[in-house]
Amino acid sequence: MSATHTTKSSRQTRTGGVLPHFAEPRFAAIWVALAAMLLVDAIFLPHSVELSTILAVLPFAAFLAIGAAGQTLVLMTRGIDLSVPSIVSLSSVVLLGVSGAQDGRLWLAMAAALFLAMLVGTINGVLIAVLKLNALIVTLAVGSIVMGIAIAYSQSVTAISSVPPSLAAFSSSRILGIPVDALFALVLMVVATLALRKTVIGRRFELVGTNPAAAHTIGVPVRRYQAGAYILAGLLYGLMAILLAGFIQNPTLQIGDPYLLAPIAAAVLGGTALTGGIGSMISVSGAAMFLIQLEQSIKMLGLPSAGQMIIEGVAIALGMYLSERSGTRRRK
Predict the structure, then answer these.
(1) How many domains, in total, are found in the chain?
(2) Could you tell me the pTM of the whole model?
């Protein structure tokens, strides 16, 4: 039995062969939650659902969606990545240092930032997939080392505090009133969804996460796919860092701090199975919108910033519970 046939059969079993993947209950739940929150906000915090407000926070949802997409790929292989903040910080400081705030060096700077982000992902992937080390410990340790490198490198670029003007202009621009960062994230999510759902590589990737033993039996290079998840995740974190740096224009080493728990929360709330193999980039994007809108509502209510961290923790715990419960029902 081929990997394509295996993953198709399992998907048809879950959906009855009728519903698109994002309409499955585990993936549709986040859209119901988002709609409910917007309704509540419209009643009690009407300013938070005004078009101007939503457009203002949409770029932050886009950044989180890109980071959560990388985390989703890792979770789908039964891993986890805690090196995200460090990769984002390193990519942004390298972008500053290599570009020297000059448009003529922007492409070189972006290439260097993406290369290093993927290099970190490669190190994570080799240690976890090939050497079979614990993903939690590896990514935490690698993240600590990467952050140290970022701090050391930043000392040589202290005089450079802003990104090249063309990148700043791009990240702050809009097309038909919609932030270009949000449109970029949308295109990226559509491409990722098509790659996972419509290609042989994507279906094999799902099989590797769902049943590594079965994938190995039919000749799928399991370790290569597992390591590849971390490499692609690193690429996505690097892209997020570039867009985020361009948006805020004056990035600091703390630029990656918000992205330790938030991508995990978005992934699990978007229906990604911690048992591997199951995930939806579209629903993860909806979860990113949910978390950003939730953060905006908390700020408008005047609650302390610590409340956001508490709610993120609760969201992750709830998402893990629902994911495990769904997985248990599937196995029965």
Answers:
(1) 1
(2) 0.90
